[in-house]
Amino acid sequence: MTALIPSHDIAQWLLGIVRDICGWMGLRSDPQIEQIAYVILISTFAVGLGYVIRRAVIFAVRKIIRLRKTDFGTELLNRHVVTKCSHIIPPLVILALLPFAFEHTSAVLRIVNRLVYIYLTIMFGVGCNAIIGFAWYNYNRRANKENHPLKGVMNVAKGIVWIIITIISLSIIIDKSPMALLGGLGAFAAALMLIFKDSILGFVAGIQLSSNDMLRVGDWIVVPSTIANGIVIDVSLTVVKVQNWDNTIVMLPPYSLVSTSFQNWRGMSDSGVRQIDRSVIIDNTSIVAATDAFVSDMVGKYPLLKDFVAQRQADAKEGKPMVFNGGVAPVNGTLDTNLGLFRAYMCRYLLTHPAIAHDQNIIVRLMTPDANGTPLDIYCFTATTDWLAYEAIRSQLFEHIATSAADFGLRIFNATYNGRITVANGSAPAQAATA
Hints:
This protein is an alpha+beta fold. It has helices spanning 7-24, 31-68, 71-78, 81-85, 89-97, 107-142, 151-174, 178-185, 189-195, 197-211, 254-259, 266-271, 292-301, 306-317, 338-352, 387-407; strands at residues 220-222, 229-235, 240-244, 249-252, 263-264, 274-282, 363-366, 374-382, 414-417, 420-423, 430-431.
């Protein structure tokens, strides 16, 4: 690449300037002073040339962007890729002009050459990493529709570049082949693995998380062994950042998500529905047989029961047994007890509720009775996954159960002691109502 620079003519011109300056200062007879002045001058010239070329390229790219209006060019400028890649120009200019002021056997020339080669190598690494970062950014923004955690792969690629740059730089300093240096590094493999343990484990874990589609940026995850319960905002080689619902940030090593279990709520978000599975405990002493008058009274008060009751009474007159179909959302209930009629009502209520998903399972069931009573379990899905809407729908549903159960003669269980009551789950006691 240095052959592309017309170094001879430029070098002679610069040497003439150096000699004129040294003569003006009375230092013409000192070759070392001339060499130092020449190195300073060509370094300044190289930096200036690099700046001019960089500005020219950026100006040309901006003109092209304005004419073609491409996002690619805009991103190229915004991420300073051209600027970072242009840093390779100054060392190339210095290498092309440097030999003209020194003898080929000069020790100073060898030292300066090594320093410039190291500078060139480092700038080459900066340019490579800028291109890698730009490529990752474009792929992640355009093609990575599923938000696979690929940032760790980018970090590994950049790390490999810097490892290669470091090895080449060391080989330049000691004047040995990079392959010989690599052979010598084998003895330090154990130490290197210990030093980069987290990076190695993170890289392997990142590949597993990505290949198995276990985690993406934007997922809601819960890690039981930690306080992490929120949205994944970043996945890198060494850390997974989770923003909890209280806006705190939890940092997790990627391999901890592979070595232990965690819950990912992405499936719920993608499905568009969210499960409700909660019980209220019915006092067993309030469960009684349902009379015809009671059934008629409940049909008058809750018209949703009309079709169910009419169908069950017609089947009973014809001597047909009660048949429960296995559909997605069957109405299950009986006319035998007030609890059976209440179950039928709740099924009809859920089937007509606009915020409940009717293409998902809807079940109103009795769980195993215990000393506190019989749990009445509501199993259904809301038609939204929005957290605030979900909590509002669930709260409204159980408020309705608490008020309507009393109309069916059912009591929701409360533990009592010393004239005070507390809900069965052991929360703070409240003043008891008089019986």
